[in-house]
Design goal:
- This protein is about 30% helix and about 20% strand.
- The two termini are about 15 Å apart.
- About 55% of the residues are buried.
Length: about 375
């Protein structure tokens, strides 16, 4: 079993963990993430859902390390993320650092405003669990730039964080929260020297994107979630009002400000989307210089999709293998992304199928790159 296929299998079926490992629950997007390195490659896989508890894949301790097994057969070595050292620290007023920002393997991540104008009403994104984490007391409602800068320095010095990924719940303001998340990112960059991705919805005035770039942010995530308009209207009604073409207008402005490959969008599989529309949307995004970060749905406990099953690994892998050639042909790839989800890649197996091209030769960030196979397989 090659590594791309194994990670796709684990992200579809989940993993039964017989050893302690760091996990993320709740959050602003697809979550339920057990964090580990598989044969040296960063990956997050479902570990807490009901279907993960029934997974045929097991993380097991060995005499010298850990391994992933199925039916008693060892498939790969593994190293689960241990509790980061900075989690034991707190601010002067007693807020634990882990309530401000979490370490997702090697990326510091935080939802800077843990509330959303859409939460709890008819506009709520059905896959989202942003309010779950707050209700469970696992975070605070609003992180300040000063807090995040303090935590970022500790995460870099104590645990080797290499970048910061900052997102936000949408605010009921014309900029949708973009300027605040950018202020937080600016503080992190200045204090810790980490490259930063800021994630936000398309603002009403696209000139806000230029302001974000002017604050020193390295890359941005503007997430459409689905290229199927019927699915988008069902799972994210407010985003559907912006419309897919509205996202393309925002991406074009962002590519002009940040450069090709520094703008990304989540594309979630497993919500009933038309695969042809999905692949065509990804192709159009790639042509615009946008990296489509294709991920399988992870039904989050407490979200409106909590009872759904994750998509089959065969389905997600087939989409990966159709989208990856577009990236290769356009010269875009995970290696070129400065910060954020498209740089980390741990929640997807797609970058494992990217071919080596030109300036992208040579591995980076613990990602192993495998030969591309025909999209007809």
């Amino acid at each position: 079993m090659d590594l791309a296929h194994l990670i796709a299998e684990l992200q579809g079926h989940g993993l039964r963990a017989e050893v302690p490992m760091e996990r993320r629950q709740g959050g602003a997007g697809p979550a339920d993430a057990g964090m580990l390195w598989i044969d040296g490659v960063a990956a997050t896989v479902p570990t807490s859902s009901d279907y993960a508890h029934a997974s045929p894949y097991v993380l097991r301790a060995e005499d010298d390390g850990w391994g992933i097994y199925r039916d008693g057969r060892r498939l790969a070595s593994a190293r689960p993320l241990q509790r980061p050292r900075y989690y034991d620290l707190e601010t002067a007023d007693g807020i634990p650092y882990w309530k401000i920002a979490l370490l997702h393997l090697d990326s510091l991540a935080s939802t800077v405003i843990q509330t959303c104008a859409y939460w709890g009403n008819s506009d709520q994104c059905t896959f989202c669990g942003i309010g779950v984490t707050l209700a469970n007391g696992r975070t605070i409602a609003k992180k300040t730039p000063e807090m995040l800068a303090e935590v970022a320095v500790a995460a870099r010095e104590l645990d080797g964080a290499v970048d910061a990924t900052l997102t936000t719940g949408t605010t009921a303001t014309p900029d949708k929260g973009a300027l605040y998340v950018a202020r937080c990112g600016q503080a992190v960059r200045e204090a810790a020297g980490l490259p930063v991705e800021a994630q936000f919805e398309p603002p009403a005035d696209l000139a806000v994107i230029d302001q974000v770039a002017g604050m020193g942010i390295d890359s941005v995530g503007i997430h459409v979630e689905s290229f199927d308009p019927d699915v988008l209207a069902r799972v994210a009604p407010a985003k559907a009002r912006t419309g897919i073409d509205g996202y393309f207008r925002a991406w074009e402005r962002a590519v002009a400000a940040f450069g090709e490959g520094q703008v990304s969008t989540y594309v979630i599989l497993g919500m009933g989307e038309d695969p042809e529309l999905t692949v065509e949307g990804c192709r159009r995004a790639v042509d615009a210089g946008v990296y489509p970060f294709v991920v399988p749905l992870r039904p989050t406990v407490g979200s409106l999709m909590e009872r759904l099953a994750a998509p089959s690994p065969g389905y997600t892998e087939a989409i990966y293998r159709r989208v990856a050639p577009y990236l290769a042909a356009r010269g875009l790839g995970a290696r070129g992304v400065a910060a954020g989800c498209a740089r980390c890649q741990a929640c997807s197996a797609m970058s494992l199928l990217e071919t080596l091209t030109g300036k992208e030769s040579g591995d980076r960030d613990g990602r192993t790159h495998l030969p591309l196979v025909s999209s007809g397989q």
